[in-house]
Amino acid sequence: MLPEGIVMWQGLHEPSMELLRVTRHGDITQVESSFAGVYEGAPLQAGYTVELNAHGGIQSVRWGDRWLARRDGRWYLGYLPLGADFDLCCTIDIRQTPFTNTLAIKELELAVGETKTIWVIFLYLNGGGFVPQQQQYTRLSERRYRFDNLDGGFVADIEVDANDFVVDYPELFQQVYPLSLHHE
């Protein structure tokens, strides 16, 4: 379960800042984020909201005027079921934030040395599109994971804090609040 509070990241490849707030409402954990920065050379201001159930699984995600929900093992765009391509997706990924790595890490519950391949719904904050994507995570140590986008060939070793929030995502993101003192 995610702790309540605020986390902030700065973008390293293109200038950006994200402020993420985690709150709990009964059995539901709500994650609200605001993003402002440069994306592919153009300014972008966007936000998203993720609702997690009592077990940490995604119940819904909203961004722009889009709303995806997960019920009974299926994904829906609003109230319309998505195609079979999305049925294997266990979580989401958003390029402009390291937070969605936290969701995948918590979903996978990897032991050190273990590797798993998953399907995710890759969301575009600019434009509202989404596609299924295959990814792989390997737990390298207690606080370090290798992320591999199998559809695009991108690989990165990321460091997380005790709550699995990304602290360092080389060349892309760095946590700036709260400051974590743990580095391996």
Description:
- The longest helix is centred in the middle third of the chain and has 10 residues, at 99-108.
- The chain has one domain (5-177).
- It is mostly beta strands and 184 residues long.
- Helices cover 5% and strands 57% of the residues.
- The chain has a 15-stranded mixed β-sheet, covered by helices on one side.
- It is built from 1 helix and 15 strands.
Number of helices: 1
Tell me the domain tally. Answer: 1
Principal-axis shape equals globular
Instruction: Specify the structural class.
Output: mainly beta
Distance between the termini: 23 Å
Record field, number of beta strands: 15
Describe the structure in brief:
The protein contains 1 helix and 15 strands, in the order βββββββββαββββββ. The protein is mainly beta and 184 residues long. The model has no long low-confidence stretch (mean pLDDT 94).
Q: SSE layout and pairings?
A:
Layout: E1 5-11, E2 16-25, E3 28-39, E4 42-52, E5 58-63, E6 66-71, E7 74-77, E8 80-81, E9 89-94, H1 99-108, E10 115-123, E11 130-139, E12 144-149, E13 154-160, E14 166-169, E15 173-177
Parallel strand pairs: 9-10
Antiparallel strand pairs: 1-2, 1-15, 2-3, 3-4, 4-5, 5-6, 6-7, 7-8, 10-11, 11-12, 12-13, 13-14, 14-15
